[in-house]
Amino acid sequence: MSSLKIGDQAPDFKGVNQNGKEIKFSDFKGKNLILYFYPKDNTPGCTAEACDLRDNYEMWLSKNYEVLGVSPDSEKSHQSFIEKHKLPFDLISDTDKQILQLYGAWGEKSMFGKKYQGVLRKTFVINKNGKIEAIFEKVKTKEHSNQILNEKK
């Protein structure tokens, strides 16, 4: 379990996007990055979060931010999710959960009193120098862009 804090250097990672293309943390050097971790494509909360980031994507680009989502879903699932909701950003397929674990976004969850391992919905705002500026562990899926903007004021 990672214990990343604001001010830490964001851990380096590499993964594969919805098209099978390798995506590395270094690809975002010199850009700000909204790196968000979510449990599952096409579920209500995950769809709301992705669509909120999609609806504000042009604003994020204008502020020199890229958006990148990570979940343990397959490339094929990501392709379908992107097509269905017209998402303009990449999604990493982290089926072996390495990036999720690196960022502390994989851990114990509880539902109906039963404990299990799963994705912890988290967002990291990383500046152009690779430093973590903000961490969201209680994501407001329907208004995540506003949540991030309000934190950055």
* Main beta sheet: 7 strands, mixed
Estimated radius of gyration? 14 Å
N- to C-terminal distance: 29 Å
Principal-axes shape call:
globular
**SS class:** alpha+beta
Strand content: 25-35%
Order of strands, widest sheet = 2-1-5-4-3-8-9
CATH superfamily membership: Glutaredoxin
Binned, the helix content reads: 25-40%
- The run of helices and strands is EEEHHEHEHEEEEH
Query: How many separate helices?
Result: 5
Total number of strands? 9
Number of domains: 1
CATH class: Alpha Beta
Describe this structure in words.
The protein has 153 residues and is of the alpha+beta class. It has one domain: Glutaredoxin (3-Layer(aba) Sandwich), CATH 3.40.30.10. The chain is built from five helices and nine strands, in the order βββααβαβαββββα. The protein has a seven-stranded mixed sheet with strand order 2-1-5-4-3-8-9. Strands 6-7 form a two-stranded antiparallel sheet. A hairpin with a 4-residue loop joins strand 1 and strand 2.
Throw out a few tags for this protein.
153 residues, alpha+beta, Glutaredoxin, two-stranded antiparallel ribbon, 5 helices, globular
Summarize the structure in short.
With about 150 residues, this protein is an alpha+beta fold. It has 5 helices and 9 strands; from the N terminus they run βββααβαβαββββα.
